[in-house]
Write a structure and sequence with these properties.
The complex is a heterotrimer of chains A (548), B (429) and C (437).
Chain A: E1 10-19, H1 23-34, E2 39-42, E3 58-59, H2 63-66, H3 70-86, E4 91-92, E5 96-101, H4 106-118, E6 124-126, H5 128-134, E7 142-148, E8 151-153, H6 155-170, E9 173-175, E10 178-186, E11 189-197, E12 203-213, H7 219-225, E13 233-243, E14 251-254, E15 263-267, E16 270-274, E17 278-280, H8 290-303, E18 312-323, E19 339-342, E20 352-357, H9 363-378, H10 404-412, E21 419-421, E22 426-427, H11 428-437, H12 447-452, H13 466-476, H14 484-500, H15 509-522
Parallel strand pairs in A: 1-2, 1-12, 2-9, 5-14, 12-20
Antiparallel strand pairs in A: 3-8, 4-8, 5-7, 6-7, 10-11, 11-12, 13-16, 13-17, 13-18, 14-15, 15-16, 19-20, 21-22
Chain B: H1 14-21, H2 36-39, H3 51-59, H4 63-68, H5 80-84, H6 92-101, H7 109-120, H8 131-146, E1 166-168, H9 173-177, H10 183-192, E2 196-197, H11 208-211, H12 215-232, E3 236-239, H13 243-255, E4 263-266, H14 267-276, E5 293-295, H15 302-306, H16 308-322, H17 352-369, E6 373-375, H18 379-392, E7 397-399, H19 401-409, H20 422-425
Parallel strand pairs in B: 1-2, 1-3, 3-4, 5-6, 6-7
Helix pairs in contact in B: 10-19, 12-13, 14-16, 17-18
Chain C: E1 6-15, H1 19-30, E2 35-39, H2 65-75, H3 86-102, E3 115-118, E4 124-127, H4 136-142, E5 147-152, H5 160-167, E6 174-179, H6 192-198, H7 202-216, E7 221-225, H8 233-244, E8 248-251, H9 258-273, E9 277-280, E10 284-289, E11 294-299, E12 304-314, E13 324-326, E14 331-333, E15 387-389, H10 399-402, H11 405-424
Parallel strand pairs in C: 1-2, 1-12, 2-9, 5-6, 5-7, 7-8, 12-15
Antiparallel strand pairs in C: 3-4, 10-11, 11-12, 13-14
Helix pairs in contact in C: 1-11, 3-11, 7-8
Classes of the chains: A alpha+beta (548), B mainly alpha (429), C alpha/beta (437).
């Protein structure tokens, strides 16, 4: 895309424009494609740029909601079972434990099994000794324990598979870095959406018969652009930290009223400790803080003492978009985790729908309801098929699964396949497949985009080394042929840094020190000739960035 | 090779094992993925593996792969990875653990057989030489040496001499295949008037049991040998020119918490001491042809044991023997030396192609020195470096220190020159 | 088991074997002081090989480091380099590069200006002195010579195309080719260090030259990743140049890289030959600051080693090399428990933007010293009359952003040795005799 192009830019026609490249948006895309409908999905950044890329990957058994929200709990259980059946490769059915430690509310613990029963969640009491036999990392101070059928899901793979399947079925398209600027509304319908490619500056006009707002935390903004004010969201920021290696085999939940640091979730080859919950007003400038990280560690130690000595490699934050019912309290933990589908007919639009709230576990159901509405409006009589149709995988979209690349390497071991990311053992063939064919692959694909579609930069070194190897490889392949490649490298490591700095102590700090020595002292990425072309973060360009 | 019941491979949790076995701050969690270990390891690339990859696979939970990869038999546990690592992470510890997890019938047969032979013989000999064989061979050879001339008419090679100062071990290779090669060391002891003895029980030096990864077997070997030293009441256990025999004993004593109230000494240190004290008046006058020598630092003796102190002693002796001008070091050397690939049981593992690939770096090092001879106080280095020379057409020869010491002193027998080339074979005769 | 006890005695104990530690040993040897040294590989293993005196003042890259250092006295009076006379810095730098040359690793003579040197990404970096094996790049770039850069199948992270693409505006005559290295061209991963060792063998040089020659065309210079030998790089460099008939220059690579291994192996081989009692690749476990002597205890595989010295220089580096350790909210110095000047709490360690031109406050944390380069205790007094400090461990400098790592290491080592010598009032010029026992 040529930054110099002025004038009309690109024009797209589609049946359904979907805004928001997370689990919900991509879920809607696939749902509709299975009914034969062509879609265009856009996101101002890339896939899973919001909550779908900033969560702990838990496929809820529902246990966490059993006490407070029985309907949500039951919904989670049902949807979890469906996903385990249609997308098993995205899911690790590792099981879970709920454990209470000395000092936790015994009432809460005692009532847990009946809440689970009411929601239809399989829950079995075990002794603390049995719990520690299952998970030796558990504290000696565990006083009560229950098993539940928790599982974890790879949200990146789900999203990629959704988009890929839609692409296969109806040649549906995903456009990254496409930011909605305004709608053209006439006669009670949205006629087109005027967007801007934030990499090239080019205008993109999209003509669609139906528009779906699945923009997650940004759904309120998008709705307002359509003149709709009925969507009210509470923004709840949550922070998680990732350990260098996996701790424990199962999800470990704290058996108490939800609070900070009460869940430790395996993520394949690592573990995620979370979460915090803090209401925020502003979706810009969301990043993990040292205080949040320290709180997580302090709470986590109560369940799993070795957390005091664990090397954490990254912190990240996501924003939960919670539906605010009129007059509801501003406590993020108590706001509804359920979702709503707005048809906006009362607000004067016939072809606009917003699906908001909800959680990762129930994305399919959210997409089903949305799909039913949109299909009906299009006069399409096809029923939803996502409950029973398996999600197919593919060459370019299987690389986000933690541990897949290493197993692939161990099984094939082709001499021509060099490893570019040593920490996660990602080979050149993976990078090539992604650059050539992954959903959203574009010319001069950025390292950030490659990272979303793989495990590059997600291991111990957090991109310190692999950024350089991947970018050199892309230069070799002439995917990069100018200083733009170095700017991509710079932007990638700058992104990685935001998550590393809050956990930089102990054994992890040398990793960051070495990274800075490489990136600044060796390569001079801190003083590249041009300013950033694209600001991949939600933040504004920081003040003080100077041109030499 | 197949046995009636196939033992399943034991799968180790490497991540947990690393935390338990390695010191904090120097365990797999501290790894920065910088790759210095891989760049400096001669086993990198074999089986597509390298030390960095081993660490990463452990952290990624690839326990089945690590418990079954043949790479663990190509890593000689030389600890060079630990040496070059900014965090001092020792990858070899878990390699040893992995070896031990293999079912016996799947381990390289040669190493297993050697260990079994050791376990069966009270002498602890990997060649299965029994006490009587050893005693008889020694006695015959002593007789042979005495017959060489007046000088050695009263030479002794005591066995089971109670209260001797030095307890000397013996690598099975000499009594088993080339008994005349035992004589040079006896002549040196005779020369300096050392009060020494062999032992009929626990006499052998080599310890393949450590190489099998079987800690129990390793322990048993060390216990027998320590008992032998104790039984004879010797003050110093003097280790022959063999690398791993030194390491496996002192390390075994430490690891298994054994009581061993004697000093662990290396022949090399004592050569150096005797030379400094004037008791072994070697010099380089014999080297009129200016024959060039380099020295191989055995990993087991230098990097893994006494460090550069030993490397200094090695060079002191070597330079005295061959002349400063005729000595050239390999690069790198001393504690930074490359393993030649003879250790860890590699020579007995039957993996020739891999062993040669491993040793190519050592071959290049030697060729760059342009040395005619490689001096080494280690049997496995000796065998491997010789074999590399033959395979890659090096043209150099490999000798033990005792051969050159006797040559220098003018006491090397005619039949004790097996490893000398035509340039030196007749010297002094 | 009765083990051999190992003990060294020396007048000066150098703790740390990075650039500062090595410089300290060389300067001490030059003064006839007996030295014992211990240290682990740390960050020197990752160096480009360039010796940076001062490369960026926070506003722009620096062309004249000597001028910039004068301004530094005003701008950053606490900076270690702001507290050393220019003549001393010059003498230190010149002495160090000269010593390296004598030991077989030739460096360009430090001059009045920085040189613009290449990075593997095709960016440029100002440095004061670079290895002779890299020096021809300066003239080739300045003259915009028709230059071939060769990279290798399997060498991750070094792309000749990347270099050419990023240097194109400045150096249009730079073009890229890829070849396989002799006997290492199956497509499997190759390491710069392994190629470098192979090039010590004449036959390998011949084979490599044969592969490169047909690609040279009209090229007037050849660039290669840094693989020209480890042990005798100047020799390998000369030989290859003579085989190819054009100037050849090396370009540093990303880790694991050769220049750091060269320096480390050079020190490990040469310093003991010059009389330093060196315990390579070990860390001091305990440091005892006694009234009459300073004792360091370390443990190797075999047991305890003791070093006793009259004076000591602490040059243990920062976090990667273990001189500093970061608890979740406080930084401590790991060996002598010295107070560390530091931002309060982890939230203040790093700024929000990785590439903030002001740098990160944690990088300026470190120990403080008096005018005699002695680290201060909590009361602001020297922790010990004969304990000195040098190198990146010192506070108030940001070696990575200011590109002053070698400058700080070498100049502070020079001063620390000078001060240590003064406390010993050493007068004799003959090196004293000492023994390993």
């Amino acid at each position: 895309m040529d930054a110099q192009t002025a004038g009309h830019g690109q024009v797209f026609e589609t049946e359904v424009l979907i805004i928001g490249g997370g689990a919900t948006g991509t879920g809607v895309m696939r749902d509709l494609a299975l009914r034969g409908i062509h879609c265009l999905l856009i996101d101002r950044r890339d896939l899973n740029a919001g909550a779908s890329g900033g969560n702990h990957g838990l496929l809820h058994s529902g246990g966490r909601y059993a006490a407070a929200d029985a309907d949500t709990a039951a919904e989670c259980r049902r949807e979890g079972d469906i996903l385990k059946a249609v997308a098993p490769e995205c899911i690790d059915a590792c099981g879970g434990l709920f454990v209470a430690v000395e000092g936790d509310d015994p009432e809460f613990a005692a009532r847990f099994p009946e809440h689970c029963r009411a929601a239809g969640i399989e829950c079995k009491a075990i002794t603390p000794a049995e719990a520690r036999a299952l998970e030796p990392c558990l504290s000696e101070k565990v006083v009560a324990a229950y098993t539940v059928p928790d599982a974890t899901v790879d949200p990146f793979r789900i999203t990629l598979e959704n988009v890929n399947h839609a692409r296969e079925l109806t040649q549906s398209i995903f456009l990254s870095h496409t930011e909605l600027e305004r709608f053209v509304v006439a006669g009670g319908s949205i006629r087109s959406a005027i967007c801007r490619d934030s990499r090239s500056g080019e205008t993109i006009s999209i003509h669609a018969r139906q528009v779906v707002n699945a923009a997650g935390a940004w759904a309120m903004r998008v709705a307002r652009l359509a003149g709709c004010s009925g969507v009210k969201l509470l923004y709840s920021k949550g922070t998680l930290i990732i350990s260098n290696a996996r701790i424990g085999a199962r999800v470990i939940n704290r058996l108490r009223a939800p609070g900070d640091g009460d869940i430790l979730v395996p993520g394949g080859t690592v573990s995620l400790l979370g979460t915090t919950s803090q209401t925020v007003d502003n979706l810009d400038d969301i990043h993990p803080t040292v205080a949040e990280v320290d709180r997580l560690v302090a709470e986590g130690i109560a369940m799993v003492p070795e957390i005091a000595h664990t090397r954490f490699i990254r912190a990240f934050s996501g924003v939960r978009p919670l539906l605010l019912a009129a007059g509801a309290a501003a406590d993020g933990r108590k706001a509804s985790r359920g979702f709503s589908l707005f048809d906006h007919e009362s607000e004067g639009l016939a072809n606009f729908a917003t699906v908001a709230g909800g959680k990762l576990t129930t994305f399919r159901l959210m997409a089903e309801k949305t799909g039913d509405l949109v299909a009906r409006r299009l006069g399409n009589k096809q029923p939803c098929k996502t409950e029973t149709t398996p999600l197919p995988s593919g060459d370019a979209i299987r690389w986000t699964e933690p541990g897949f690349a290493p197993r692939y390497w161990a099984a094939r071991r082709e001499p021509g396949g060099l490893i570019l990311c040593e920490c996660e053992m990602v080979p050149t063939s993976a990078i090539d497949a992604i650059v050539d064919n992954a959903p959203g692959a574009q010319s001069q694909m950025s390292l950030n985009a490659i990272a979303v579609r793989s495990r590059v930069g997600k291991g111990s070194c957090q991109g310190a080394f692999c950024s350089l190897r991947v970018s050199s490889h892309l230069y070799d392949r002439q995917v990069y042929d100018s200083p733009e490649g170095l700017r991509n490298t710079r932007d990638f490591v700058a992104q990685r840094f935001k998550g590393v700095a809050p956990v930089a102590w102990g054994e992890h700090l040398p990793q960051l020190e070495l990274a800075e020595a490489l990136h600044c002292s060796l390569l001079g990425l801190d003083h590249l000739a041009d300013d950033r072309v694209v600001d991949d973060s939600a933040q504004q360009a920081p003040a003080g960035v100077q041109k030499p | 090779m197949s046995t009636a019941s196939q033992t399943p491979t034991r799968i180790i949790d490497f991540k947990t094992a690393a935390r338990e076995l390695l010191p904090p701050g120097a365990s797999y969690d501290a790894c920065l993925s910088c790759g210095l270990c891989s760049a400096g390891c001669p086993a990198s690339g074999l089986e597509g593996m390298d030390p960095r990859r081993f660490i990463r696979m452990a952290m990624l939970g690839m326990n089945e792969e690590l418990s079954t990869t043949a790479w663990v038999w190509t890593c000689t546990q030389c600890q060079r990875c630990k040496y070059v690592c900014p965090m001092s992470i020792d990858v070899s510890v878990l390699v040893g653990l992995a070896r031990g997890a293999w079912p016996t019938e799947k381990k390289p047969r040669g190493i297993v057989r050697s260990c079994e032979a050791q376990m069966r013989s009270p002498g602890t000999s990997a060649m299965g030489l029994q006490e009587e064989d050893f005693v008889e061979t020694v006695e015959e050879e002593v007789a042979s040496v005495r017959a060489q001339g007046e000088r050695f008419a009263r030479l002794e090679a005591p066995i089971d001499k109670q209260g001797a100062h030095f307890f000397v071990n013996q690598n099975s290779r000499e009594p088993g295949t080339e008994p005349e090669e035992m004589a040079p060391l006896w002549k040196i002891f005779d020369y300096v008037g050392a009060d020494w003895t062999y032992s009929s029980k626990g006499w052998a030096a080599e310890n393949f049991c450590m190489f099998t990864g079987d800690d129990e077997a390793w322990r048993k070997m060390v216990e027998q040998r320590v008992a032998a030293v104790k039984r004879l009441g010797c003050k110093v256990w003097l280790n022959t020119e063999c690398g791993h025999s030194f390491y496996t004993l002192w390390k075994g004593v430490e690891r298994f918490g054994l009581e061993a109230d004697f000093e662990a000494g290396s022949l090399v240190s004592y050569y150096a001491r005797w030379i400094r004290e004037g008791r072994l008046p070697v010099n380089a006058d014999w080297n009129t042809q200016g024959i060039k020598f380099t020295v191989q630092d055995p990993c087991q003796l230098v990097r893994k044991s006494l460090g550069d102190t030993m490397a200094d002693d090695l060079r002191f002796v070597a330079r005295r023997l061959v002349g400063d001008a005729n000595f050239v070091d390999m690069a790198p050397c001393r504690s930074a030396n490359y393993c030649c690939g003879g250790g860890g049981g590699f020579l007995q593992a039957g993996m020739k192609e891999l062993r040669w690939a491993y040793g190519k770096r050592k071959f290049d090092q030697i060729m760059t020195t342009q040395a005619d001879y490689v001096l080494t106080p280690c049997h496995n280095c000796h065998s491997q470096i010789e074999d590399l020379g033959q395979h890659f057409h090096g043209g150099y020869r490999v000798v033990h220190f005792w051969t050159l010491i006797c040559l220098s002193l003018g006491i090397l027998g005619e039949n004790e020159r097996k490893y000398l080339g035509p340039d030196l074979a007749r010297l002094g005769l | 088991m009765i083990k051999q006890s190992r003990c060294h005695q020396a007048e000066l104990l150098v703790i740390g074997s990075g650039l500062a530690g090595m410089a300290a040993s060389l300067f001490a040897l030059a003064r006839g002081i007996s030295v014992a040294q211990v240290g682990n590989s740390g960050v020197i293993a990752f160096t480009t090989g360039y010796l940076d005196l001062f490369g960026h003042d926070g506003r722009s890259f620096v062309d004249d480091p000597w001028q910039a250092l004068l301004r530094l006295r005003e701008d950053e009076p606490l900076h270690p380099l702001a507290n050393i006379a220019a003549d001393d810095i010059r003498a230190a730098f010149t002495g160090f590069t000269h010593a390296l040359g004598e030991m077989g690793l030739g460096y360009s003579a430090p001059g009045a200006r920085n040189l613009l040197a290449l990075t593997p990404a095709g960016t440029l970096k100002p440095t004061l002195s670079l290895p002779l094996t890299m020096q021809p790049m300066i003239a080739a770039m300045a003259g915009k010579l028709d230059t071939l850069v060769v990279d290798f199948i399997g060498l991750n992270g070094f792309s000749a195309r990347e270099l050419a693409a990023n240097l194109a505006p400045r150096w249009p005559g730079l073009h890229a080719q890829r070849i396989g290295f002799p006997d290492m061209d199956s497509g499997a991963e190759v390491y710069a260090e392994v190629m470098a060792r192979a090039l010590e063998v004449p036959a390998t040089r011949q084979s490599l030259a044969e592969r490169i020659r047909p690609l040279l065309g009209s090229a007037q210079a050849l660039g290669l990743p840094a693989i020209l030998g480890v042990h005798r790089p100047d020799h390998v460099h000369r030989e290859l140049q003579s085989l190819l008939g054009v100037p050849v220059f090396e370009i540093p690579t990303m880790p694991p890289a050769v220049p750091g291994v060269r320096l480390r192996e050079l020190f490990e081989t040469q310093l003991p030959q010059r009389g330093v009692a060196l315990e390579p690749q070990h860390r001091v476990k305990r440091l005892e600051l006694g009234s009459h002597k300073i004792t360091a205890r370390l443990e190797d595989a075999y047991g305890e080693v003791t070093i006793e010295a009259a004076t000591a220089i602490l040059a243990t580096g920062r976090f990667t090399s273990g001189g500093l350790h970061a608890e979740p909210n406080a930084i401590r110095e790991t060996l002598a428990n010295l107070p560390v000047v530091q931002p309060k709490g982890r939230a203040a360690w790093y700024r929000a933007d990785y590439f903030d031109p002001r740098g990160h406050a944690i990088n300026r944390a470190g120990i403080t010293v008096d005018e005699q380069w002695r680290p201060l205790d909590a009361a602001g007094k020297p922790a010990h009359p004969r304990l000195f400090a040098a190198g990146s461990l010192l506070a108030h400098q940001d070696w990575m952003r200011q590109r002053c790592g070698a400058g700080v290491a070498i100049a502070t080592a020079y001063k620390a040795v000078e001060c240590a010598a003064q406390t010993m009032r050493y007068t004799s010029s003959a090196p004293p005799h000492f023994e390993r026992t």
